[in-house]
TrEMBL record:
Xref: InterPro entries: CheY-like_superfamily, HATPase_C_sf, HATPase_dom, His_kinase_dom, HisK_dim/P_dom, HisK_dim/P_sf, PAC, PAS
Superkingdom of origin organism: Bacteria
Protein's recorded name: Sensory/regulatory protein RpfC
EC number: 2.7.13.3
PROSITE patterns: HIS_KIN, PAC, PAS, RESPONSE_REGULATORY
Keywords: ATP-binding, Kinase, Nucleotide-binding, Phosphoprotein, Transferase, Two-component regulatory system
SUPFAM superfamilies reported in the protein's UniProt record: ATPase domain of HSP90 chaperone/DNA topoisomerase II/histidine kinase, CheY-like, Homodimeric domain of signal transducing histidine kinase, PYP-like sensor domain (PAS domain)
Catalytic activity: ATP + protein L-histidine = ADP + protein N-phospho-L-histidine
Organism listed in the record: Desulfobotulus mexicanus
Record keyword Transferase present: yes
Length: 689
């Protein structure tokens, strides 16, 4: 029985041993499977105390990674042969140091595969000491991608560092309290601080108070935007403020910055670039000063032209007005010739003045075209009547023709069209000694509700040399200085005409041969008028005497301080059948209106004691308050608003606007033309019964 129990005990222990061996083998196979499928290579390295190195174990990954059989008895020799020649010595030294010091081993280097190609590997292991050897268990990994990424980052960092160290602008970073956390070396050149110094300088020492207030305001606005989920998170902020340098001097700085954010996207600071824009600011200030000076000069020029216009037109009104009245009297032939010479010379002077004013308006961009309905045929007929007289005096024939496809009823500015034609035809007559002057109008093109017309003015005059053609349209230029001496003129007419054509969406040119005449042409765009009943011709035939003008009934108050102009106005009004009285200033005009019933007031603007603007405002104010302006002596009291027409030497558009804004109903520039007075009276006064 005892022997049986011994055998039974033996078999139990044997079975347990077999189970333990099987379990150990299974665990070994499991660990081997894990090792073989792990990335990299698991290894055991033995450093024998005899000085010999062995690698008794290498996982299957060695075959894929190092292209060495993991069961090779010469594995260490094969591995050492594969280490890059430049890294081999340091590889051996690292192993020797770890063995000698019995410390963990770590190495990174390059490995050249037998099939070609180089990879980066990392090896690490920990030692365990045995009686005859030191055993290192460790792992080798392929770190090629990591090293390539690191190399790229190093190159990028190098480039950025070089950029930061050499750029003129300062690259910087700061926290939300504007305390600097980084500044590139260029901060020294720009602000006088070293990159280390500026990190210790607070915002209050880097910016004047006014700049700090601006920065804090912008910061508050930007932080408010941060609360809006729709707000752009990578927005760029630009700021221009004054800042201090280290020496206390002030310079202008431009900041271009964005928010720095943590991993959750929250703003934790700013990063950006600062540029010294002091010179740019000085240039801008210089340009602004130059602009202001230019505007002041332009304003002074405008004031001068306005004053010059007023001062010339006032006596011119007297000259032309008195000449017109004189020509309406019985004169002998010599007296009539003298009077017409005076009138012609005065009108020439007035033409020069108008040219200068028009050119000034065009240059300032203040000349606006009128858009009204007009009849082209009527305009040309009226225009040709005045040109024909001038042509006949020189023995020239003047003709005009309109092609059949040219529409007569147009929308545009007939006054400016007539001005261009008068200039071109007038020049043609002036510079032609014999032959003819011909105007032809043709259709250039139709487009939508408009047409482009081409106007040609041909003459048989002296012609123009080819090398002089380019000068014709320059201001104050003529083809030859002798022309000015012989024929007069400012040299502005063609320059103005060309610009007027441009304002009409057209252009102007010339074709000429010296000694063979010239052809001046221009194009202009006009709108079309569909119904003839809508057209009201603006042209009036030139009246040679006051006797041909219509008559009116009523009483007119002439408010004018110049005695000569008073006489001119009174003479014209008498010829028009009107009763008239004179007031020398605004105060007298108001007194007169309280005394007698007037149907209309002609109001000068510049007068002593009370000017026409102030007088008009007073009159309109009294009317608005319901006060009776016309007194108890009025034989036929006029109720309501009395028409007030400006009669002024101010010829600028602003003069007209000023008069109308004051409450006047119309505007007649001096010199006063009888025809213009008759036109205005036709709107406000009745004809005699």
């Amino acid at each position: 029985m005892r022997a049986f129990l011994k055998k039974l005990n033996f078999f139990q222990k044997f079975r347990e041993l077999k189970q333990t061996e099987a379990k150990a083998l299974a665990q070994q196979e499991q660990l081997q499977g894990i090792a073989d499928h792990m990335p990299g290579v698991l290894f055991r390295f033995d450093a024998l105390h005899s000085g010999k190195y062995e690698i008794p174990y290498m996982s299957e990954g060695a075959t894929a990674l190092l292209e060495i059989c993991c069961h090779s008895p010469s594995f260490f020799t094969d591995l050492l042969a594969g280490v890059h020649p430049e890294d081999r010595e340091s590889f051996l030294i690292s192993i020797e140091n770890a063995v000698r010091r019995v410390c963990p081993w770590h190495f990174e280097g390059r490995y050249v595969r037998p099939s070609g190609g180089t990879l980066w590997f990392s090896g690490a292991s920990s030692p365990r000491v045995y009686p005859d050897r030191t055993v290192f268990h460790g792992i080798m990994l392929d770190i090629t991608e990591r090293r390539q990424t690191e190399d790229q980052l190093k190159k990028s960092e190098y480039h950025y560092r070089i950029l930061a160290e050499n750029v003129i602008d300062v690259i910087w970073a700061c926290d939300l309290n504007l305390n600097m956390t980084y500044a590139s070396p260029s901060v020294y050149l720009q602000q006088g601080y070293t990159p280390e110094e500026i990190l210790k300088v607070g915002a209050q020492d880097r910016f004047p108070l006014r700049s700090l207030e601006i920065l804090q305001k912008i910061q508050a606005e930007e932080m408010e935007k941060e609360k809006d989920p729709q707000s752009a998170k990578n927005r760029t902020i630009r700021i221009e403020v004054e800042a201090y340098k280290k020496d206390g001097s002030i310079y202008w700085a431009e900041f271009v910055l964005t928010f720095m954010r943590d991993e959750k996207g929250n703003a934790i600071g700013y990063q950006g670039v600062t540029r010294d824009i002091t010179e740019r600011k000085r240039t801008e200030e210089d340009l602004m000063l130059a602009k202001e000076q230019a505007e002041a000069a332009a304003h002074a020029k405008g004031e001068f032209l306005a004053n010059m216009s007023h001062e010339i037109r006032t006596p011119m009104n007297g000259v032309l007005g008195m000449t017109g009245l004189l020509l309406d009297t019985e004169l002998d032939e010599t007296q009539s010739r003298y009077a017409r010479t005076i009138e012609s010379s005065a009108r020439s002077l007035l033409g020069i003045l108008n040219d200068i004013l028009d050119f000034s308006k065009i240059k300032a961009g203040k000349l606006e075209l009128e858009i009204i309905d007009f009849n082209l045929e009527s305009l040309l007929k009226d225009f040709s009547d005045s040109i024909t007289l001038r042509a006949q005096k020189k023995g020239l024939e003047f003709l005009y023709g309109i092609d059949l496809d040219v529409p007569f009823l147009l929308k545009g500015d007939p006054g400016r069209l007539r001005q261009i034609l008068t200039n071109l035809a007038g020049n043609a007559v002036k510079f032609t000694e014999k032959g003819e002057v011909v105007i032809r109008v043709s259709l250039e093109k139709r487009e939508g509700d408009g047409v482009w017309l081409r106007f040609k003015v041909q003459d048989t005059g002296m012609g123009i040399a080819e090398d002089k053609l380019s000068l014709l349209f320059e201001k104050f230029s003529q083809a030859d200085a002798s022309i000015t001496r012989r024929f007069g003129g400012t040299g502005l007419g063609l320059a103005i005409s060309r610009q007027l054509a441009g304002m009409m969406d057209g252009e102007m040119g010339v074709e000429s041969l010296e000694g063979s005449g010239s052809t001046f042409w221009f194009t202009a765009r006009f709108g079309l008028v569909e119904e003839e009943s809508r057209i009201q011709s603006q042209a009036r035939a030139k009246q040679n005497t006051l006797a041909d003008l219509p008559l009116f009934s009523g009483r007119v108050l002439v408010t004018e301080d110049d005695v000569t102009n008073q006489a001119v106005a009174m003479g014209i009004l008498k010829k028009l059948g009107l009763r008239a009285d004179v007031a020398a200033n605004g105060l007298e005009a108001i007194h007169a209106l309280k005394t007698l019933p007037y149907d209309l007031v002609l109001m000068d603007v510049m007068m002593p004691e009370m000017d026409g603007i102030e007088a008009t405002r007073c009159i309109r104010g009294m009317e608005a308050e319901g006060k009776d302006l016309y007194g108890e002596t009025s034989c036929s009291k006029r109720k309501g608003r009395i028409p007030i027409i400006a009669m002024t030497a101010g010829a600028m558009e602003r003069d007209r606007a000023r008069c109308l804004n004051a409450g006047m109903d119309g505007y007649i520039p001096k010199p006063v033309e009888p025809e213009e007075l008759a036109r205005v009276f036709g709107e406000w006064l009745a004809s005699p019964a």
